[in-house]
Amino acid sequence: MSQSNLILLGQEGQTIIYNSWWVFLKYTAVLIFLIINFTAVSIALLCHQNDSLFSKLFVSIFAFMFGFIYIIFNYYSYRVLMKGQVCTYSGQVFPF
Description:
By secondary structure, the chain is an all-alpha fold.
């Protein structure tokens, strides 16, 4: 029996290692996406500490839906560059 016959193949003819690698990449991409979105929610809540509960809820949902876009455009371009306000860390990651 040759060595090539010992390689395990999946249903589509791809190796098991190839399929596992793609599953790992997919889970890693989802994890990075969630980290970026939760970071955007944390930044949004830090910037709106003195607002009402409804405002915090709306801003946090918006920041979660548009995480990377929120960080670049709303926080960095508008708040930091145009207004000159930097949100400071208050000791809580999600100050609700």
